């Protein structure tokens, strides 16, 4: 049997290519080309030739490695916490309706409209030294709070709260694949909450969880405002470290090297995201 290509399908393919042409050009122009220039600029020096001394310095400098390690584990822990916190809210919103669900959704999405600087200010006023919590504890004659301000816990708390809406929306998108009928059928057969979650819900939203984790990692790895305002001065996450190296130390070569290394880590997680999207387009997980 001979299959004749449908003319509308060919037209649709061309239209699709034209639609993605502009974003691809912008991606190459505004992201890939500057990254390539930065990468070459850290390796090739006119009149001196090639040298990887800045990369050798980064991976042998104890302070740089501590900053990289802090960034890695803060990013990993914050990403997992966002999914863990957002998951029960997303399941509740998926299978509930009414005014209470609308109120919960509004409160969960509220951080989406709050600037990072205000999040940091609110954090300091509530959990900082002599903040609201401390004031209440002193009034109750209880020991003062060991504040997470200027410790690694500070940016973790702030970043979890700030990134909760995006994670929630991605999980809600994945939960749209889970039919209410299948959950009700499992309940009729005697399945309880954890069984329904692990056997019915989780297999259908694996791609969404991977996408949410990838988005979180891409945003967290180069986060600046909250780690700068709430985190410790030493060691520090890569965002503040790059800024301080460039501005305070007036060392653009090492700052660019840190940026290239940061991009390499983000690109690796970007590939995980692209793979998850490709798997999702093939069919439900």
Provide a descriptive summary of the structure in words.
- The chain has 285 residues and is mostly helical.
- It contains 13 helices and two strands.
- It has helices at residues 7-41, 53-60, 62-95, 99-109, 116-127, 132-139, 153-175, 180-188, 193-204, 206-221, 225-230, 238-248, 252-282; strands spanning 44-45, 49-50.
- It has a two-stranded antiparallel ribbon with strand order 1-2.
- A hairpin with a 3-residue loop joins β1 (44-45) and β2 (49-50).
- It is flat, with a radius of gyration of 24 Å.
- Mean pLDDT is 86; it is low at 1-5.
Taking Cα atoms only, what radius of gyration do you get, to the nearest Å? 24 Å
The arrangement of helices and strands along the chain is HEEHHHHHHHHHHHH
Which strand-content bin applies to the residues? under 5%
Q: List low-pLDDT spans.
A: 1-5
Overall 3D form: flat
Report the strand count: 2
Strand order of the largest sheet: 1-2
The class by helix and strand makeup works out as mainly alpha
Distance between the termini: 33 Å
Q: Compute the number of helices.
A: 13
Range of helix content:
over 70%
Main sheet overview:
2 strands, antiparallel
Oligomer: single chain
Name the average pLDDT: 86
């Amino acid at each position: 049997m001979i299959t004749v290509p449908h003319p509308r399908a060919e037209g649709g393919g061309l239209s699709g290519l034209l639609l993605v042409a502009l974003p691809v050009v912008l991606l190459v122009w505004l992201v890939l080309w500057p990254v390539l220039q930065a990468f070459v600029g850290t390796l090739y020096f006119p009149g001196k030739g090639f040298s990887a001394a800045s990369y050798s310095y980064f991976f042998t400098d104890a302070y740089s490695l501590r900053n990289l390690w802090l960034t890695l584990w803060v990013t990993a822990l914050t990403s997992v916490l966002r999914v863990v916190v957002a998951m029960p809210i997303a399941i509740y919103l998926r299978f509930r309706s009414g005014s209470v669900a609308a109120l919960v959704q509004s409160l969960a999405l509220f951080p989406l409209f709050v600037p990072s600087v205000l999040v940091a200010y609110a954090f300091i006023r509530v959990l900082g030294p002599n903040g609201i919590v401390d004031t209440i504890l002193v009034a109750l004659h209880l020991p003062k709070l060991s504040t997470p301000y200027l410790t690694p816990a500070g940016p973790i708390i702030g970043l979890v709260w700030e990134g909760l809406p995006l994670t929630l929306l991605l999980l809600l998108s994945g939960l749209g694949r889970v039919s209410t009928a299948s959950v009700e059928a499992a309940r009729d057969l005697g399945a309880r909450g954890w069984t329904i979650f692990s056997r019915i819900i989780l297999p259908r939203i694996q791609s969404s969880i991977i996408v949410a984790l990838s988005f979180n990692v891409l945003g967290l790895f180069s986060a600046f405002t909250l780690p700068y305002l709430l985190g410790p001065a030493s060691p520090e996450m890569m965002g503040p470290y790059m800024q301080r190296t460039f501005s305070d130390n007036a060392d653009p070569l090492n700052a660019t090297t840190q940026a290239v290394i940061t991009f390499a880590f983000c690109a690796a997680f970007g590939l995980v995201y692209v793979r998850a999207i490709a798997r999702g387009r093939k069919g439900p997980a």
